[in-house]
Structures are given as structure tokens and as C-alpha cells.
Write a structure and sequence with these properties.
Elements lengths: L2 E5 H5 L1 H8 L9 H15 L9 E6 L8 H12 L10 H25 L2 H19 L4
Antiparallel strand pairs: 1-2
């Protein structure tokens, strides 16, 4: 069985801070939604980082079944491994890459929390989303 993982450092650091401080209301979303958001932040940053310590399971594969987010994780895997299209259904490999992007995303969020107030960060993320929309809207 595959798992979506998080580093011990992020679990005991930024994830605990999000939960304890109800940061941006992220404590109210499901762990899969939060993890997916962190994968998106990591992917948007342009790099997938290895764990710098122990990793802990956050979400069991069975909780991702019947959820379209797995297609997004497979698309990210394909983006980084275009020559390995037959592997996009291999959750061990796809989740391992998603873990790396999530690890980056949690680090990015930790930096954001240290740099911005909650309101300022919410506005920054909305502005980033607007910029992405402008950048990609003609592709659709």
C-alpha cells in the first residue's frame, strides 16, 4: 500500500502551526486537500525537494481512491517523466514525486507564514492565482 508522506520536520513544524493557529483556515480542510495545496505550491516553485530527515505517512492510498486529485499527481509525474508514460498509474512512483513537491510546498508555506500576515498572504495567493489565469487562459 502506498502512502502520501510528509517530513517529520514539516509535520512537527509548519503543519502543527497551521493546525494550532488555524492559519488561513487550512486546518479545516481535509488532509488530502491540504497536501494537494502543498503539492501545487511546490510544483509552482519549480522544484521537488528530497526529505531532509525522516518521513511520516500522512494519508493512506485508500483515502485517495475515487478522488480526481490522483490524476493531477499523475499529470505532474508525467510532466517530469515524459519518457515513462507507462508509470503514471504506479502510485508508488507517482506518490513519491508528489511527496517531494509537497515537501517543497510545506517549506514555501513556512517561508510565507514568516514573511506575511494571514491577510497579506491571502491577497498574495489570490494575486498569484490571477497571474496564473492570465498566463494560461489562452491555452484552453
Amino acid at each position: 500500500m502506498a502512502f502520501l508522506n510528509i517530513s517529520s520536520k514539516n509535520k512537527n513544524g509548519i503543519l502543527r502551526k497551521i493546525d494550532d493557529e488555524c492559519y488561513l483556515g487550512l486546518d479545516e480542510c481535509t488532509r488530502l486537500d491540504l497536501y494537494s495545496f502543498m503539492v501545487a505550491l511546490g510544483f509552482a516553485s519549480g522544484y521537488a525537494s528530497d526529505f531532509d530527515g525522516a518521513k511520516e505517512s500522512l494519508i493512506r492510498e485508500e483515502y485517495t481512491k475515487n478522488n480526481n486529485i490522483c490524476y493531477a499527481f499523475s499529470a505532474i509525474y508525467f510532466n517530469d517523466n515524459k519518457d515513462k508514460v507507462e508509470e503514471i498509474a504506479d502510485t508508488e512512483k507517482v506518490f513519491a514525486l508528489a511527496d517531494k513537491y509537497a515537501n517543497t510546498g510545506f517549506s514555501v508555506m513556512a517561508d510565507y507564514i514568516n514573511e506575511y500576515s494571514q491577510n497579506a498572504l491571502a491577497m498574495k495567493l489570490l494575486a498569484d492565482m490571477d497571474n496564473m489565469y492570465e498566463q494560461y487562459k489562452d491555452s484552453f
